[in-house]
Design brief:
This protein is an alpha+beta fold. Helix content is 27%, strand content 33%. The protein folds into two domains: 249 residues, Alpha-Beta Complex (Ribosomal Protein L22, Chain A); 49 residues, no CATH class.
Length: 301
């Protein structure tokens, strides 16, 4: 199984509301606080962009308005398209002006989380982390602690979302195991560039993790540090490394032959989105006109 993901910022969200559906507009109208409205809009925009690319839909306001992200009976976000449940599962998270959406095939269990790397108290660790997790934290230096605590907490959030319970249960019922811990701490929780608050400023590949639930179940997941943030994903069944969905600026490629233009979405081959380097149009029926004229996209990868 492949998991796809996309991250957006507040700057990516248009000021207009024409990409929201009627039920979403009703929900938005009931939000009193500006931050809540901004976070909600950012999460919906990111999710719709991700789903449109995943389903290979045209990215335009009317198509996005046909897609609505509403709460399922469990409270988890659920995607609808043209009044039908979309054939996929999603998970959404936002933090400090960024949002992430993960998308997987229908039937999977999925949770994602995005966290700003910041200091958390000893009381926070003792209240929400297992004895084993606290021992892992105790083995790292003070400079590494902030990142590691954020990572473990984010993985818990992802796991609890995947289980469909959120923060309604004791967070110590899920225990995060960092695969190849010594290598992870050495290579991925330590950065050559650190800001004045001790937060790493770099990007790293997705790394594996495991989550053990109280009932004995073990779930596989992934984590990644990006600048001042940590991303985590947990899914069942297990997935390969998460695949980045091209954002709107590269996801829909304008292609023209000088007379006519179309938008082309990079195709998905073996779970990998392809970035097209050289694209041109060829008229498959040069003599044809009107509706019967067909354009073929030629690519060089």
């Amino acid at each position: 199984m492949n998991i796809y993901w996309l991250e957006q910022t507040e700057a990516d969200v248009p000021s207009e509301e024409d990409w929201l559906g009627p039920d979403e507009m009703l929900l938005l109208s009931g939000m009193r606080f500006a931050k809540r409205r901004a976070d909600w809009r950012l999460g919906r925009w990111t999710t719709k962009q991700a789903i449109a690319a995943y389903l290979q839909l045209t990215i335009c306001p009317s198509a996005l308005a046909d897609m609505q992200i509403l709460a399922a009976p469990s409270g988890a976000p659920q995607a609808w398209f043209k009044k039908q449940i979309a054939p996929l599962v999603i998970s959404i998270s936002h933090s400090s002006g960024r949002a992430i959406c993960a998308v997987a095939p229908s039937g999977a269990a999925l949770g994602c989380d995005l966290e700003l790397i910041e200091a958390r108290s000893e009381c926070f660790v003792s209240d929400y982390f297992t004895t084993e997790e606290q021992a892992t934290i105790s083995r790292v230096s003070p400079n590494q602690r902030m990142q590691l605590v954020t990572l473990l907490w984010s993985a818990k959030e992802s796991a609890l979302k995947m289980l469909g319970v959120g923060l309604r249960i004791d967070t110590r019922l899920v225990a995060v195991n960092l695969v190849a811990e010594s290598q992870l701490v050495r290579e991925n929780c330590v950065s050559s560039a650190v800001d004045t608050n001790g937060r790493a400023c770099c990007n790293n590949p997705w790394q594996p993790l495991q989550v053990r639930y109280a009932g004995g179940q073990v779930f596989d997941g992934w984590w990644q540090r990006a600048d001042y943030f940590v991303r985590t994903l947990v899914a069942a069944p297990a997935s390969g490394r998460p695949v980045l969905i091209p954002g709107p600026e590269i996801g829909m490629l304008p292609v023209s032959d000088g007379n006519q233009s179309v938008n082309v979405l990079p195709s998905d081959r073996d779970g990998i989105f392809l970035h097209l380097r050289d694209v041109r149009l060829r008229d498959a029926n040069p003599a044809g006109k009107g509706a019967n004229s067909r354009w073929v996209v030629q690519t060089h990868l």
